[in-house]
Design brief:
With about 280 residues, the protein is an alpha/beta fold. It folds into 2 domains: about 220 residues, NAD(P)-binding Rossmann-like Domain (Rossmann fold, 3-Layer(aba) Sandwich); about 30 residues, no CATH class. The protein contains 9 helices and 7 strands. It has a 7-stranded parallel beta sheet, sandwiched between helices. Strand 4, helix 5 and strand 5 form a beta-alpha-beta unit. The longest helix has 29 residues.
Length: about 280
């Protein structure tokens, strides 16, 4: 047996010792992403405003053998974010990864069964604030620390709604299109100002059943709604994604293996974005 096989090299996708902040890291997708980063060796800080949910996720990570802690902050409150950042830096000394997983649709902002003109203005503004400002503000706060370090990765969560007209989701679609633009803009800014060690990318999930869309995809008996069946018909793989199927893409983009990758929006969608419908 060769020496290389007897002494295998560390995985090129390892995140051993990295400090990762996951906003909304107790949701369906954010929680799975946090678990995937922990499994790759990262120390995890779960950031959000729901203390009980965050505490449960931190406890689950610790029970799985990870080093984890919570940071209580609202992703659109700059003062709370700054306090959380400084608290984390004081304890763990650095910030290597920020995953902006907080977000989702706002039920009052949907227009599935009414004209879009009837969507309340405050509901439209709420979904924009949650998904766009909820990505920009943490990125500005934690990205500043990465700039001082001259190293770090910001990973945003986009959506198929960013470049396809998906009915009922105007505010959400505008917010996610903004996330795409912000990802590219911030990638250029960080690399030019702070060097190649700071990268900004995004993944664009296809359709996954999560808390914010469960009611429009599943009937009370657990069967698929008409909308869900339409989505599956337009997904070449013929199914919804599983939350854990995002994790490898996240791990790659957060690892040193993606050291020359910045400003990209990577679809993880079962072919939805490639299919014309014909």
């Amino acid at each position: 047996m060769s020496g290389d096989l007897m002494n295998p090299q560390p995985s090129p996708f390892s995140l051993d010792g990295k400090v990762a902040v996951v906003t909304g890291g107790y949701g369906v997708l954010g929680g799975s992403i946090a678990s995937g980063l922990a499994a790759a060796g990262a120390r995890i800080a779960i950031l959000g405003r729901r203390r009980e949910s965050a505490e449960r996720k931190v406890e689950a990570l610790k029970n799985a053998g990870a080093e984890a802690r919570l940071l209580i902050a609202d992703v659109i409150d700059e003062a709370q974010l700054s306090a959380a950042r400084d608290e984390l830096l004081g304890e763990w000394g650095r910030i290597d990864i920020l995953v902006n997983a907080a977000g989702g649709h706002v039920a009052r902002a949907r227009s599935d069964d009414r004209p879009v003109f009837d969507v309340p203005t405050d509901a439209f503004e709420e979904v924009i604030r949650l998904n766009l400002q909820g990505t920009v503000r943490p990125s500005m706060c934690f990205g500043e620390a990465m700039g001082r370090q001259r190293s770090g990765v910001v990973l945003n969560i986009s959506s198929m709604a960013a470049d396809r007209a998906i009915s009922g989701t105007l505010g959400y679609a505008i917010a996610k299109a903004g996330v795409d633009s912000f990802t590219r803009w911030m990638a250029v800014e960080m690399a030019r100002r702070y060097g190649e060690g700071v990268r900004v990318n995004a993944i664009a999930p296809g359709f996954f059943i999560a808390d914010h869309n469960r009611a429009v995809l599943l009937n009370a008996d657990g069967s698929f709604t008409t909308r869900a069946l339409t989505i599956i018909a337009h997904t070449p793989m013929g199914r919804f994604g599983r939350p854990d199927e995002l994790n490898a893409a996240v791990q790659y983009l957060c690892s040193d293996s993606a050291s020359f990758v910045t400003g990209v929006v990577l679809p993880v969608d079962g072919g939805f974005s490639a299919f014309s419908g014909v």
